[in-house]
Amino acid sequence: MLIDLLNKAKQDKFAIGAFNVGGLESLRAIAGAAKKLNSPVFVEVSPGEEKYLGLQNFVSLVNNLKEEYGIQMFLNLDHGEDINIITNAIELGFDLVHFDGSKLPLEENIRLCQEVVTMAHSKGVLVEGEMDQIGKKITDPQLAKKFVEETGVDIFAVSIGNKHGMGDDEKLDLERLK
To answer: What is the CATH number of the domain that holds 72?
Structure first.
């Protein structure tokens, strides 16, 4: 079960790579590296990638590669803002969905995230939530606590100076993270 793997990674202090992919070539490269390293891996599908290849195609490709390479690959809908796309990903068998309501007012974000969590958990799917646009606003730990407690998310995307590689002056506030 994915939550068990994530807890083991936290306990044993190891990371699980997560890679956005746009097609078969990058998927094969990721699968080959995961097999060589005997490591689980996340395949992340962003909204742009979803439009390019389609969720069902990603599910089929990942399932085929998991079988072919004999590896653990997990599908994550990355930065999903559209509830219909998130619902579709859950129904198709994604392992994790990232509900990104960071552009919404906090209370609306919490309400919609609660709906996603209820729907996803009923299918055994994990949910990542986000309340602050990464690179634009630093996360307030007290609001983060409120968000996590009220939504029941499994993972929380925190903004502590990270910009997803969109700048060379990234300075992480590790004390805030603690």
So the answer is: 3.20.20.70
